[in-house]
Design brief:
alpha+beta; BirA Bifunctional Protein, domain 2; Rossmann fold; 2 domains; eight-stranded mixed beta sheet; five-stranded mixed beta sheet; 16 helices; 21% strand; binds histidyl-adenosine monophosphate
Length: 427
Amino acid sequence: MLKSPRGTRDLLPPDTALWNFVEAAARDIFRAYNFHEIRTPIFESTELFARGVGEETDIVKKEMFTWEDRGRAESDKGQSLTLRPENTAGIVRAYIEHKLWERGLNKFFSIGPMFRRERPQKGRYRQFYQIDAEIIGPAAAGSQSPARDAEILELVAALLDRVGIANWTLELNSVGCPADRTKFNEALRQALAPVVEKMCADCQRRAVTNPLRVFDCKVPEDQPIIKTLPTISQFLDEDCRTHFEEVKNILNAVHIPYVENPRLVRGLDYYQKTAFEFTHGSLGAQNAILGGGRYDGLSEALGGPPAPGIGFAIGEDRLVLSLMETATAESVIRKPDVYIAPLGGGMNREAARVASELRRHDLVVDLGDESFRLKKSFEAADKMGARYILIVGENEVAADAFALKHLASGEQVTVPRADLAQRILRK
Ligand code: HAM
């Protein structure tokens, strides 16, 4: 039997209703905060992620689905392409390519699949979905302001609240600017020198190439060593420190609780200053529902103008998993308002007309077949959880008035065609 590839999943009804519910809530919230949708390609040049996310990150080093293009055209030949493992780099590329600052656009969101070749487990897949939001723009437009960091974090809290996720924890840190990072990496190198040979092969390499990435290590035996390493907070300069303080001040003012985690460095190299994750206890080992932070140098690293930015990406798979703790797909599905039962030969046409009229009133309508006995129609209406059943038989058509039965109470009335929609809409 053919199966979906390892780490990929079919999202099936009724669960897809929860996905749609989450996405609709996200779109509402994004509208309220003046974000606009952007859709970028699912594959990009490999170089974008190497330069954007960082050569030494696990994502780029181990997890990307990369291939060489087989195109015949000279321009395609040998081009290295990659299924996007994340979308910040793609959005910043599009921002630069289309000079989006000239159109006064600086708040973007996107929803779609990402790909990472990770070891699959609960909450970790090779194709997963992110709801991504980014604020990016010229410094003159205020995009480097701590007000933007706080706005992003408050937006996340509002969204989690809207979908009904409670008991999240916001972990917050500042990873400083490049100058702080240089000093920090130097201190890490020194601290690692006497112990690194006891660590895993990856850490031994990281200690040389990019010591900060040692914090990404998941090997249990290495954790006691990692706990003794210095943290970035000791190396922040005045500007980064004040920025971080102001982010926290605004969060306090809008009553967003957070805990500081000085070891939170995030697995992507582009972060500067604010870095954060929202975690949720229900998720087990893969407990980060979302992560994000500020990436003030990314546009320049990709060949663009200076454009400070901050954003986050929600792991939609994980958000839906958390939601399933408290909500069922059934609770967000809109059941049919009415099931139309054509009764007897020639009634499919009449039933189709009535259904078409009612659907234009934004009612959810399902439709049977004239070959069904009345009993079978009732069973079908019951099974799909319809509120009403509407009988379309010869007598009803002749009278232009229809038998409408409320399934829960059993109450039945005859309603003229012109009044049907209003009658059904009235709960
Ligand atoms: P990230 O932390 O790599 O950040 O991913 C964000 C979220 O995507 C994670 O917190 C997690 O919920 C979800 N996620 C990641 N990998 C998987 C996986 N294999 N299976 C299921 N869910 C997963 C980023 O991607 C950044 N681009 C976020 C960002 C936006 N930073 C600034 N702007």
